[in-house]
C-alpha cells in the first residue's frame, strides 16, 4: 500500500523529529501516500500510514480529516484551488470561477468527465497582492484574467 | 523603504547566501559563534529596538525571549510561524522567497539566546515555492558550516528543520501550530501553561512570526536604537504592509512605522480610476473594519491604528472602494471563520456557523428585521468566551461591519438585495 | 504546595497554590456547571460551560483549567459569569435535538440539568439543526451522535484510561464528529465507561435501549463478582428485574470505572436457560415439584446414601468460585457438621498437590504507586481489567513492567520486556531470577539453585527487581496448571522476600478469596476435588457447577458424578444438560444480584451486598436453601435470621491458612503444555448467558493458539479442532505450548 519510494520519503521526514515522535511526520506521510494513490485517501491508506508511523488509526484519521489538503472523494489529476477570500473576491474571483466552471463544463466540487481537472474554492492562499489567484499542484498562478486562465487550463495534460 | 527584510529585493538572486552575506548577513551569528555577544546583550538590544511580534498580537519580542527558562536542563525549541493564512496577509511568503537567510539567522540567534538547540520553521502547506527556497537556503547554511552541532568549533549548536502544514488557518495560532508539529490536528491548547514552559513535545518553546525573526539580524547588526528610530514611539522600526484589494498596485511595502495611511495608499497606486475609498481593514481579516474617513486620518503604527478603532494585526491592509457590497464582504469573512474554526470549543464551533448562516440567509433575500440584533448578540456571546483568539477574530469583523455600515445590512434585509450592487 | 487563601463569591476559602479552581469549588460545594471536565480525565477546557469571573482577568476564565493563586477573587455567579454561562448554554442547545422525552439519558442528562438553570427557553436559532449520521460501534454502546456536545470525554477516556484510542474527533469546525475509525466496533474491555462519562444521551447502553427512564428505577448498591476486584456498582432495577448496571465510585477499589463484564453480565439473568423450579429425578425422568418435596427428596437421598450407612466420609461438597462468602461458609459447615472434610472449590486445578499458594500483599490502590511490576502468566487486561488499569496508571507515571508469558498479549501499556517462554521453562526462569536476586543481595545460594544457569533475561529481570524500591510480582491464572505451579509460587515468594517486592496472586478469580477465607478446602483426612471424583463417593452437594466449564477433568467429573450409586444434589441458577444427567435433585437458586452476600477481593476486603431484586419464580437464595437443608438434617447452629448473621460468624472465626510445601522443583520439563482458560466473557455462568457481551469481539474469543512447530507436532492445522476448540496458528505463542481460550462448553479437556 505504501511504496518503497514513499517509505523513503516518509523516513526522511521522520528523521527531522526527536526519537519517539515519528508521528510528527504524519501530515507529510499522508500527502506522500495520497499522491501515489489517485490523489485521495481511503481508510485503508490512512491505516497503512498509521501503522507505518506506529500511531492509532483514529489519530491518523483525525489528521486526515482536519486538514484541507487531503481528499477523501475522487478528484481530478489536477485540482485547481481557486482562492475566493476577501482580496481575491474584491478583484473578481467569483466571476473568474464562474468563467472557469463554464469553460470546463463542471461545477466546483465536480471532476471533468475525462478525470483531468476539478475546481475547489479555497480560503486565502497568502498571495493576496497577486489577487485573483489559484494554485495547481505546487504552483501559484497570480493576477489571473479570463484569458490567462484559458491559457493555463488549456496547457493542463 | 525596504530597509530590513526586503533590503536585498533589488539585488540579483536576493535569496542566495552570497547576496545575504554581501549585505552583512550572518555577521551577528558569526560574532555569537566567536563568543562576542551574550544572550543578555541581545535581549537588551531587542528591547531597545521596540520590535513587537509581527504575527498579529504585537508582543515585544525581547521580553518574550527573556521568559524562556534558558538554564533549565532540558531540550528547548524555537519555532518560526510561517503559516501565514490570515486573509489579506502575504508578507511572510515573500520573506521566505526573497530573504530566507534572514529567517535562518534570526532563528539561530533566538536559539542561542534561549539556549534552544533545535528549531522548526512551520511553513503553510501551500507555500511550496517558499518551502523549496527555504530548504535550499538551509542547505547553503549547513554547507557553509553555519548550522549544526558545535558550529565552527564553538560550544553553540543549532539545528533547523522545516515542517509543512496541510491546510488549516488555525495552525497559525501558536499552540495549534505546536499540536500540528506534533502530528496532531491543529487544535489550540488552553493557556496556561504557556509554550515557554510547556511547548513543543512538552518542552520550553518560543514561537515567533517569520517577519519577527527576519528583523532580528539587522537590529543586532545596526543596533536597537537604529531600529527604534526608524519607527515611532511604541512601534519601533519598519514593518511590512500587504496592501491589497481595490488599489492600482497591490504590493508588500516595508515602510517605517507611523507612516500616514494615505501615503501608503498612494504608494499602492491609489484607488482605481473613478472610484472612491469606502472602507479599510488595516490589519488582516480579523481586525475591525474602518470607514474611509477614519482611515484617511490614521497613521500606520500600533497606537495610531488602535486610536482609529482597529488593530495593526499582521499589517494586512485590505482596501475596499465604493463598489464593495459590505454585506457580501462580511459574509465572505464569516464563511472563512466558519470554515476554519477547529471546532473544539462550543462558542466558536456553534457560533461561527450561526453567524455565517444568518448572513447567508440575508444574502439569499430571506433576512429578518431582527437579524442585525441577532448577529450582534451572537458575536458578543462568542467574544471572550473561547479557547483561542479565532473566536474573537470571527466576532470582531461582524461587530465592526454592522456598526460602521449598518444601513447596508438594513437595506439588504428590507429589500432582499444589495444597496450597492442592486 | 503552599496553603493559600482565595475568595469565592465573597467567601474566603483555603486551598493549595496551583490547584485547579473547579477542584476547589467542588470541594467547597459551590456548583459550577461543566461538561468536559471529569476528575479522572485530562483537562480539555473545550465546552466553556464553567466560565467564571476572575477579578483582574479581562476575559471570563474556565474554572476547570485555571490554576488558583493567592488572593484570587472569583465570582461564579455574578453578571459576567452568568452571561458567559448562558451564552455557552445557548450555543450548546442550538444544534441539540431537544428530544429529551425519547432520549435514554432523559432524567440523568447533565445537559438537561444545566439547561434548566441556564438556558433561555426560546431558541433564536432558526437555521436548521445539524443531523449527524450514526455509526454502529458494537453490541454494547448505542450512539446518537446528533446529541453529542463534543466534550471529548469519551475520546479522552479511550486514550487515557482504556489505553486504546478508539473514538476520535474527526473533521473540524461544525463538522467535528466523534466516531471510531474502524467499523469493527469498540474493542476495549472497559468500553462501557464511555456511557457513564458521556454527559448527554449520545452514548447509551445498547442492551438497555428505550427500556425505561432512570427515575422509574430503583438503585441498589452492589458488588460485582466476576473478578478479584469486587468493583462497586449500582444495580438499577424495575419491577423486580435488573435493567442496567452503572459504576459506583469507590476510590480504593474501582475508582470510578467498571469492566464491561461487570456492566453487562446482568443480561444473563433473564436468559431462558434459567433454572426456575425444583426438580427431582424419579426413575430417570425429571419432575417439577414443590420445594418441600425436593428438599425432602434431597435429605432422604443423603440419608439413604451416606447417613444411614455411616459413610459420611463418602459425602462431598463442591462449589463454583462465584459463590458468596455466606454460601461457602454454610456448605462447608454442613459438611463438617456431619463429619466430612471432602470440600473443595478449586475445580479447575489438574493436580492439587501442586496447587499455588501465595498470599497477596498489596492493596489495589497501592498498585498505582509501584515503580516496577513483574507479571507472570497472565493476560491481565482481560482477566482482571481494573487491576490492569491500576498497573497501567503506574506505568504511565514511570513504572517499568516486565512480563513472562507463554503468549504475547495485547497490553495497553508499554512493557519493559515481554518474555515469551514455554510453561515448562517458567520455573527454571524464575529460579534464575531468584539466584540472581540472591547474588545481588549477597545472600547464600541454597542447594537447589546451585546448578541453575542464569541467562541474560533472568539477570535483567533480577536487576529490575533488585533495584526497585516498590515492585510487585503478579502471579496469574496461566500458572494454575503449570507442572511446577507450586514451585513457581514458592519462587515468587522467595524473590519477593529478597527484594522490595510485594506479591499479587490473581491465579484464582471471582470469589475464590471467600472460599479460602471460609476454609472451603479439604480439611484433615478430606479429599480434594480430584480425589473425590476418583473415590466413588456416595453423595454430593454441588453449588452452581457447570462441569464442562468448571472442572479441569471435565469428562471424568461427569462420568464420576453420573455413577448410578451416587446421589447428587445440585443447586444451580441455570439449566445444564450435564448437570441434569448426573443430578438427582435440582434446586433452583438465585443468581448474582438476586441474593445478599459478600465478596472478598484480592486484598482481602470483605464487601457485603443486599439483593437488588427478589429471586425470580421459585428460585431461592442459595444461603437460605443451605440453611433449610441443614435444618432438615437437624444440624445444630444454623439459626440465622438473615445472611449478615452468617457473615459475622465468618468474620469472627479465625481464618484458615494454606500451608505450602517446601520442595521446589526447578528443572525444565519436556513435552507440550496446554494452558486452558475460559475466555474472558465465559468465566462464569452469568456472563456466558449475557448475549450482548457474547456478541463482542472479546465474547467471540474461542481458539487453541499454537505456533506452527507445535501444530506440526500435534498434527493439527489451522481451523482443525484441538480439545474441541478451533486451532489458530499463531507465532505469538511459545514453542511447545497450546494456549486455549474457550468460550463454550466442551467435554474434552484432558
Ligand atoms: C487564529 C489565529 C491565527 C494566527 N495566524 C498566525 C499566522 O499565520 N502567522 C503568525 O505569525 N501568527 C499567527 N497568529 C499569532 C500567533 O498565535 C502568535 O501570536 C505569533 O506567531 C507570535 O509571534 P510574534 O510574537 O512574532 O508575532 C495567529 C493567531 C490566531 C489566534
Ligand atoms: S476559538 Fe475556535 S478555533 Fe479557537 S479553539 Fe475554539 S473552536 Fe478552535
Ligand atoms: S459522545 Fe458524549 S462523551 Fe463523547 S464527545 Fe459526545 S457528548 Fe462527549
Ligand atoms: S485572499 Fe486570495 S490569496 Fe489571500
Ligand atoms: S468544564 Fe471547563 S471548559 Fe468544559
From TrEMBL, chain A:
One of its GO terms (biological process) is inorganic cation transmembrane transport. Its cofactor is [2Fe-2S] cluster. InterPro entries: NuoE-like, NuoE_dom, NuoE_N, Thioredoxin-like_sf. PANTHER family: NADH DEHYDROGENASE [UBIQUINONE] FLAVOPROTEIN 2, MITOCHONDRIAL, NADH DEHYDROGENASE UBIQUINONE FLAVOPROTEIN 2, MITOCHONDRIAL. Its EC number is 1.6.5.3. This is NADH-ubiquinone oxidoreductase chain E. Belongs to the complex I 24 kDa subunit family. GO terms for molecular function: 2 iron, 2 sulfur cluster binding; active transmembrane transporter activity; inorganic cation transmembrane transporter activity; metal ion binding; monoatomic cation transmembrane transporter activity; NADH dehydrogenase activity. One of its GO terms (cellular component) is membrane protein complex. Keywords: 2Fe-2S, Iron, Iron-sulfur, Metal-binding, NAD, Oxidoreductase, Translocase, Ubiquinone.
Amino acid at each position: 500500500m505504501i511504496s518503497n519510494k514513499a517509505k523513503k520519503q516518509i523516513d526522511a521526514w521522520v528523521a527531522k523529529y526527536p526519537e519517539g515522535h515519528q508521528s510528527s511526520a504524519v501530515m507529510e506521510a499522508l500527502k506522500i501516500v495520497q499522491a501515489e494513490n489517485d490523489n485521495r485517501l481511503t481508510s485503508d491508506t490512512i491505516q497503512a500510514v498509521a501503522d507505518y508511523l506506529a500511531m492509532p488509526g483514529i489519530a491518523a484519521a483525525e489528521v486526515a480529516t482536519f486538514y484541507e489538503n487531503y481528499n477523501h472523494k475522487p478528484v481530478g489529476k489536477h485540482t485547481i484551488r481557486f482562492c475566493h477570500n476577501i482580496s481575491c473576491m474584491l478583484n473578481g474571483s467569483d466571476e473568474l470561477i464562474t468563467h472557469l466552471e463554464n469553460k470546463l463544463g463542471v461545477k466546483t466540487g465536480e471532476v471533468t468527465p475525462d478525470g483531468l481537472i476539478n475546481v475547489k474554492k479555497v480560503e486565502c492562499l497568502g498571495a493576496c497582492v497577486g489577487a485573483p489567484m489559484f494554485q495547481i499542484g505546487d504552483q501559484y498562478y497570480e493576477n489571473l484574467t479570463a484569458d490567462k486562465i484559458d491559457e493555463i487550463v488549456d496547457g493542463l495534460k | 523603504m525596504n530597509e530590513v527584510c526586503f533590503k536585498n529585493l533589488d539585488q540579483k538572486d536576493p535569496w542566495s547566501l552570497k547576496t545575504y552575506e554581501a549585505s552583512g548577513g550572518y555577521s551577528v551569528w558569526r560574532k555569537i559563534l566567536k563568543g562576542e555577544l551574550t544572550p543578555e546583550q541581545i535581549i537588551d538590544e531587542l528591547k531597545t529596538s521596540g520590535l513587537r511580534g509581527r504575527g498579529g498580537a504585537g508582543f515585544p519580542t525581547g521580553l518574550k525571549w527573556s521568559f524562556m527558562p534558558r538554564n533549565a536542563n532540558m531540550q528547548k525549541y524555537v519555532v518560526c510561524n510561517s503559516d501565514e493564512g490570515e486573509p489579506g496577509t502575504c508578507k511572510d511568503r515573500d520573506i521566505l522567497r526573497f530573504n530566507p537567510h534572514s529567517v535562518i539567522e534570526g532563528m539561530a540567534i533566538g536559539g542561542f539566546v534561549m539556549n534552544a538547540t533545535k528549531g522548526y520553521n512551520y511553513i503553510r502547506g501551500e507555500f511550496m515555492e517558499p518551502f523549496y527556497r527555504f530548504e535550499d537556503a538551509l542547505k547553503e547554511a549547513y554547507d557553509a558550516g553555519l548550522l549544526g552541532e558545535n558550529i565552527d568549533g564553538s560550544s553553540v549548536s543549532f539545528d533547523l528543520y522545516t515542517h509543512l502544514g496541510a491546510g488549516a488557518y488555525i495552525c497559525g495560532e501558536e499552540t495549534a501550530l505546536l499540536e500540528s508539529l506534533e502530528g496532531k490536528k491543529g487544535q489550540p491548547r488552553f493557556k496556561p501553561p504557556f509554550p515557554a514552559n510547556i511547548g513543543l513535545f512538552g518542552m520550553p518553546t518560543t514561537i515567533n512570526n517569520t517577519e519577527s525573526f527576519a528583523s532580528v539580524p539587522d537590529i543586532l547588526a545596526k543596533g536597537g536604537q537604529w531600529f527604534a528610530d526608524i519607527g515611532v514611539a511604541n512601534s519601533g522600526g519598519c514593518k511590512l504592509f500587504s496592501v491589497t484589494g481595490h488599489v492600482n498596485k497591490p504590493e508588500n511595502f516595508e515602510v517605517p512605522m507611523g507612516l500616514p495611511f494615505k501615503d501608503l495608499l498612494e504608494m499602492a497606486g491609489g484607488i482605481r480610476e473613478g472610484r472612491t475609498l469606502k472602507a479599510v481593514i488595516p490589519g488582516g481579516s480579523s481586525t475591525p473594519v474602518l470607514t474611509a474617513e477614519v482611515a484617511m486620518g490614521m497613521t500606520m503604527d500600533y497606537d495610531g491604528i488602535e486610536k482609529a478603532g482597529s488593530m495593526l494585526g499582521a499589517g494586512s491592509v485590505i482596501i475596499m472602494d465604493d463598489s464593495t457590497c459590505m454585506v457580501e464582504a462580511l459574509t465572505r469573512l464569516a464563511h472563512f471563520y466558519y470554515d476554519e474554526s477547529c471546532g473544539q470549543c462550543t462558542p466558536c464551533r456553534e457560533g461561527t456557523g450561526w453567524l455565517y448562516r444568518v448572513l447567508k440567509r440575508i444574502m439569499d433575500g430571506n433576512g429578518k428585521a431582527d437579524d442585525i440584533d441577532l448577529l450582534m448578540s451572537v458575536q458578543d456571546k462568542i467574544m471572550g468566551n473561547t479557547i483561542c483568539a479565532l473566536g474573537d477574530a470571527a466576532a470582531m469583523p461582524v461587530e465592526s461591519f454592522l456598526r460602521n455600515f449598518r444601513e447596508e445590512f438594513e437595506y439588504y434585509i428590507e429589500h432582499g438585495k444589495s444597496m450597492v450592487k442592486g | 504546595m503552599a496553603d493559600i487563601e482565595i475568595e469565592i463569591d465573597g467567601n474566603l476559602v483555603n486551598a493549595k497554590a496551583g490547584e485547579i479552581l473547579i477542584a476547589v469549588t467542588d470541594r467547597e460545594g459551590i456548583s459550577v456547571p461543566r461538561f468536559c471536565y471529569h476528575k479522572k480525565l485530562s483537562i480539555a477546557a473545550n465546552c466553556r460551560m464553567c466560565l467564571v469571573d476572575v477579578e483582574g482577568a479581562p476575559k471570563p476564565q474556565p474554572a476547570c483549567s485555571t490554576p488558583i493563586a493567592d488572593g484570587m477573587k472569583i465570582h461564579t455567579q455574578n453578571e459576567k459569569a452568568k452571561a458567559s454561562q448562558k451564552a455557552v448554554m445557548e450555543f450548546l442547545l442550538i444544534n441539540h435535538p431537544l428530544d429529551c422525552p425519547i432520549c435514554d439519558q432523559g432524567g440523568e442528562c447533565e445537559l438537561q440539568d444545566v439547561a434548566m438553570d441556564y438556558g433561555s427557553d426560546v431558541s433564536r436559532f432558526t437555521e436548521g439543526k445539524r443531523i449527524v449520521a450514526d455509526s454502529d460501534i458494537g453490541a454494547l454502546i448505542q450512539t446518537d451522535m446528533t446529541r453529542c456536545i463534543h466534550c471529548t470525554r469519551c475520546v479522552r477516556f479511550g486514550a487515557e484510561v482504556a489505553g486504546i484510542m478508539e473514538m476520535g474527533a474527526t473533521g473540524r469546525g461544525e463538522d467535528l464528529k466523534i466516531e471510531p475509525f474502524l467499523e469493527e466496533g469498540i474493542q476495549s474491555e472497559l468500553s462501557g465507561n464511555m456511557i457513564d462519562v458521556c454527559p448527554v444521551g449520545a452514548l447509551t447502553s445498547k442492551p438497555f435501549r428505550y427500556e425505561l427512564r432512570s427515575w422509574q428505577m430503583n438503585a441498589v448498591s452492589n458488588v460485582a463478582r466476576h473478578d478479584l476486584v469486587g468493583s462497586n456498582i449500582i444495580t438499577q432495577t424495575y419491577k423486580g428485574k435488573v435493567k442496567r448496571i452503572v459504576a459506583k465510585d469507590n476510590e480504593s477499589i474501582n475508582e470510578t470505572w467498571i469492566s464491561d463484564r461487570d456492566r453487562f453480565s446482568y443480561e444473563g439473568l433473564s436468559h431462558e436457560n434459567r433454572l426456575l423450579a425444583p426438580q427431582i429425578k424419579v426413575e430417570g425422568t425429571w419432575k417439577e415439584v414443590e420445594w418441600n418435596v425436593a428438599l425432602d427428596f434431597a435429605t432422604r437421598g443423603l440419608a439413604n446414601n451416606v447417613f444411614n450407612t455411616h459413610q459420611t466420609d463418602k459425602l462431598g461438597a463442591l462449589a463454583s468460585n462465584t459463590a458468596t462468602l455466606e454460601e461457602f461458609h454454610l456448605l462447608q459447615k454442613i459438611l463438617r457438621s456431619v463429619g466430612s472434610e471432602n470440600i473443595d472449590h478449586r475445580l479447575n486445578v489438574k493436580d492439587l498437590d501442586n496447587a499455588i499458594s501465595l498470599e497477596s500483599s498489596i492493596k489495589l490502590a497501592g498498585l498505582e504507586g509501584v515503580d516496577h511490576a513483574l507479571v507472570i502468566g497472565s493476560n491481565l487486561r482481560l482477566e482482571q481489567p481494573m487491576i490492569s488499569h491500576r498497573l497501567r496508571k503506574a506505568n504511565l507515571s514511570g513504572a517499568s513492567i516486565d512480563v513472562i508469558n507463554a503468549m504475547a498479549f495485547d497490553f495497553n501499556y508499554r512493557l519493559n520486556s515481554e518474555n515469551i517462554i514455554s510453561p515448562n521453562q517458567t520455573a527454571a526462569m524464575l529460579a534464575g531470577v531468584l539466584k540472581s536476586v540472591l547474588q545481588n543481595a549477597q545472600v547464600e545460594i541454597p542447594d537447589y539453585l546451585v546448578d541453575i544457569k542464569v541467562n541474560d533475561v533472568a539477570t535483567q529481570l533480577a536487576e529490575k527487581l533488585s533495584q526497585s524500591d516498590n515492585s510487585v510480582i503478579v502471579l496469574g491464572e496461566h500458572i494454575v496448571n503449570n507442572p511446577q505451579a507450586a514451585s513457581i509460587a514458592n519462587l515468587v515468594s522467595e524473590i519477593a522476600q529478597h527484594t522490595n517486592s510485594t506479591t499479587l496472586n490473581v491465579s484464582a478469580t471471582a470469589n475464590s478469596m471467600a472460599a479460602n477465607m471460609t476454609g472451603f478446602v479439604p480439611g484433615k483426612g478430606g479429599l480434594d476435588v480430584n480425589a473425590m471424583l476418583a473415590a466413588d463417593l456416595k453423595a454430593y452437594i454441588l453449588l452452581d457447577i457447570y462441569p464442562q466449564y468448571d472442572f479441569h477433568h471435565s469428562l471424568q467429573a461427569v462420568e464420576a458424578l453420573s455413577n448410578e450409586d451416587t446421589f447428587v444434589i445440585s443447586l444451580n441458577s441455570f439449566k445444564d444438560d450435564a448437570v441434569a444427567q448426573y443430578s438427582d435433585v435440582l434446586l433452583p437458586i438465585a443468581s448474582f444480584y438476586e441474593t445478599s452476600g459478600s465478596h472478598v477481593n484480592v486484598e482481602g476486603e470483605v464487601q457485603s451486598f443486599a439483593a437488588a431484586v427478589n429471586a425470580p419464580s421459585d428460585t431461592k437464595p442459595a444461603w437460605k436453601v443451605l440453611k433449610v437443608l441443614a435444618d432438615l438434617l437437624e444440624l445444630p447452629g444454623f439459626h440465622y435470621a438473615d445472611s449478615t448473621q452468617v457473615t459475622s460468624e465468618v468474620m469472627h472465626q479465625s481464618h484458615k491458612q494454606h500451608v505450602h510445601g517446601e520442595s521446589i522443583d526447578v528443572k525444565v520439563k519436556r513435552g507440550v503444555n496446554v494452558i486452558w482458560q475460559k475466555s474472558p466473557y465465559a468465566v462464569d455462568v452469568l456472563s456466558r448467558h449475557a448475549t450482548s457481551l457474547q456478541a463482542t469481539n472479546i465474547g467471540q474469543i474461542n481458539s487453541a493458539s499454537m505456533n506452527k512447530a507445535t501444530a506440526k507436532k500435534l498434527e493439527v492445522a489451522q481451523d482443525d479442532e484441538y480439545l474441541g476448540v478451533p486451532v489458530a496458528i499463531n507465532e505469538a505463542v511459545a514453542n511447545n505450548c497450546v494456549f486455549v481460550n474457550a468460550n463454550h462448553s466442551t467435554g474434552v479437556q484432558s
